[in-house]
Amino acid sequence: PHHHFQAKHRTSASVNQQGHLRQHPRMAENAVTDLVPFCTTGPPLNQEQVIALSDVAGSLKELMLLALGAAANDTGCVNKVECAIGRAKAFDIVQFFAEEWEID
Q: In this predicted model, what pLDDT tens digit does every residue of 94-104 receive, in sequence order?
């Protein structure tokens, strides 16, 4: 089977006062939805899981802080993540953010 991959970079266009077309990248919301599925030590999250997480954490930073709180056994943080996506996926996300990352 052939797989087709498309860039997810979306733009909106507007015409300025001089009549020239300008493009504006839609970054913020797409960056989060494009990155969050891979913030796990397991298989990527599906769209439903990403939406559920966005209901409890409005940004990637909030998700990271929530996951780190859960890693530190903050029961409020643990409950939020587990209620959103279930215990197994919550564990994978917490592990992802709790592991030390080093870039060479």
A: 999 998 665 66
